[in-house]
Write a structure and sequence with these properties.
Radius of gyration: 16 Å
Number of strands: 10
Length: 187
């Protein structure tokens, strides 16, 4: 079943549209959200990459595994499969885990050479900046998105991603509720 971003509750009030309006316009262009969590994650990253000149990205979903909260790979953009899909982070572990723990955006404006390698058919290079932001509702972390770019992320980008994260939450909750309903029906 394909879903639209029907639950995003974007107001037509001009005052409300002013705050975070570029993120809200971005979501309006998005269209359907896909039929699975991973399709949704992939679409989010692909659209962000086009809008913000992202070289690589990863969307990590927070899951409870054996009573322990972990961030697990949901989707990637221009990532090497072997380097990303097997990674998982405990809350507080690594940069994504720390962002999940603190619930705040991390904007690294000077990524060390060799930290991440972006590969193309023409060559490879390290990105100049990295931004990692939580996707959360209240104090509950649903995921973390990590993005790399050759350009430096600005304060305006931070605001864009913060607003976008709030909008992504609504759709993630739809998928989470659907999955819980399926599990309850099976039990």
């Amino acid at each position: 079943m394909t879903r639209a971003f029907e639950n995003l509750n974007i107001s037509e009030d001009p005052f409300l549209l002013e705050k975070g309006s570029s993120a809200k316009r971005f979501v309006r262009k998005f269209g359907d959200a896909g039929s699975t969590f991973s399709e949704f994650g992939q679409k989010v990253l692909s659209h962000i990459a086009k809008e913000k000149e992202i070289l690589q990205g990863v969307f990590l979903r927070c899951e409870v595994d054996g009573g322990v909260e972990k961030l697990k790979f949901l989707a990637g953009y221009a990532c090497i499969k072997l380097e990303t899909e097997e990674h998982e982070f405990l809350i507080g572990e690594g940069l994504p885990g720390q962002v999940a723990k603190e619930g705040k955006i991390l904007n690294l404006k000077a990524v060390p050479e060799g930290y991440i390698t972006v590969r193309t058919g023409l060559g490879q290079a390290s990105p100049n900046s990295l931004i990692i932001f939580p996707v959360k509702t209240g104090d509950r972390i649903l995921g973390v998105i990590e993005l790399a770019s050759f350009h430096e992320f600005t304060e305006e980008d931070e605001k864009f991603f913060s607003t976008l994260a709030d909008l992504i939450v609504d759709q993630m909750l739809v998928f989470i509720n659907d999955n819980e309903n399926i599990v309850n029906k099976i039990e």
